[in-house]
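help with this record:
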Amino acid sequence: GDPTIWSRFAEAEPDLAAFVEPRLNGDAPSYLATVRSDALPRVHPVAVRARNGRLGVYMYPSSPKHHDLVADGRYALHASVADHDGTGGEAHLRGRARHATDPHHTAEMTDAGFPPRDGFVLHELLVTSVLVCTYDGPDATANIRRWTAP
């Protein structure tokens, strides 16, 4: 499907969004995978926030992840997990990043409690799919729920 803003996903799947958002908005880093110019993956620990119906991540304009996202916006994101056993579940997102060059967008994120550090630039993460996995019962059976953009 076509990449969409966070609020459209949250409207379509409020239960999944309610599961994912605390994991993105917490103190632990999420892991962002980008595509390098040689088509190999690159993984970065990042602070991602869902604010005002949008999903954003800040970074230095000189960082490899910024260059990757500008050149090839595809990304995969794994939200933080509590431990090696996946206690509390996991959340995986995929989509396309959009370099947010409009100062109004950065102002909205700042007003919503996610201000940039000096010199950082904002990328909005548009979503094409969200996968949530929890481990249930004594045998830790994987319970997978998915959403894909229409």
Remarks:
- The chain has a mean pLDDT of 93.
- The chain is about 25% helix and 40% strand.
- The first helix runs from residue 6 to 12.
- Helices lie at 6-12, 14-25, 64-71, 103-111.
